[in-house]
Amino acid sequence: MIKRLGLLVSVAALAAGCAQTPPTVSAAAAPVSGNTPAWQQGRAADMAGSTLAPLAGKLTVTPAPDIPLHNLKLPPGFKAELWATGAPGARAMARSPSGKIYVGTRGIGRVYEIGDNGASRTVRIVADKLTQPAVTFHNGSLYVFAIDKVLRYDGIDANPGVQPVDLTAKFNLPPEQHHNWKYVRFGPDGKIYVPFGAPCNICIPGEPYAQIRRYNADGSGMEVIARGVRNTQGFDWHPVTKELWFSDHGRDWMGDDTPEDELNRLSRPGQNFGFPYCHANGVADRDIRKGNACDGVTLPVKTMGGHAAVMGVHFYTGTMFPPEYRNALLVARKGSWNRTRKNGYDVVVVRSNPDGSNAQVTPFVTGFMNEQNQSFWGRPVYFLQQPDGSLLLSDEQNGAVYRITYAGT
């Protein structure tokens, strides 16, 4: 057995994945050792003096007056208001039938419930001390999906104190944490879709990782539907074709602008999206090399910028926004760290044909970052469309949720 980044990969699995052209692995792709942090893996020797490092999240409550919402810029007729605050680390959201919003986190390990009485919102902690939990709601139950645990809260909408059903054993979760944090949702087929990111910046990941799976709601019937997916942090289904579209983060330490993050479309189960050999629009990896690295790889619908940290994606289906937003895809870009000048920190709109062709990207929400001094105050991450057609947008940096509406010009 070969040990790589704490992950056991069988020789047979490596041989099967590389039967045509054995890969060449450079020293930069070797496992980290000693006290070297995992995020430095893949950094070449000539970058040893770099000051680039991940940006620490703010995991304390940000009072509403300290959130400079007036800095946000949206297209004419749109407005963003502070809908809720007091949920540090807020990420993906799920809505119950009564209108309660459940919110997952990453660094702080909590699940929140946001109650709405129409005039104000209240926040309570549903679960704590979990490992990077994500949430989704299905058939009256809240599903909490952490790296090492799956919990189902039946009837929590009406019974806030309900104890969870532990489904962990049925999902057979691999243990590595790096890029294994979750975004989960139930698809149009009634199955739960779950990503298992690469346990590294760049490595040969092994069978349980760099893939998207789907399961029946009880954890049975597991299928791997996409491979070569380094780190997807959001997905949605096209309203017309019902095909899965998803974001994916490009690897670090190959330069400011390459490889770019990706917006991908899964037209059939089983497609390969390239990791670790091929990135973005056909960029061969610098450290793990093989001949014809991009042969058979499904290339993105659109590349989304170097290290922009593309997160939630959402096809807008409401009627509040103008007609040109119907079935358009909104993409939250949390913002870069592995780049000399910051990139992202915004929300963009991607309009394309249903098959992904002719994709065009335009700004939608900007102002989270000051380009001149490279400072930022917010990091947009996920969307939730409300029944009235308004759009909730979570901000992980401030633990806040904004409501975006359109009233016309």
Automatic annotation (TrEMBL):
What residues form the membrane-spanning segments? none
Q: Which InterPro entries match?
A: 6-blade_b-propeller_TolB-like, Glc/Sorbosone_DH, Quinoprot_gluc/sorb_DH_b-prop
Alphabetical keyword list: Signal
Which superkingdom is the protein from?
Bacteria
Q: Where is the Glucose/Sorbosone dehydrogenase domain?
A: 216-332
Gene3D superfamilies found in the cross-reference section: TolB, C-terminal domain
- What's the name of the protein? Sorbosone dehydrogenase family protein
Q: Name one Pfam family in it.
A: GSDH
Signal peptide span = 1-27
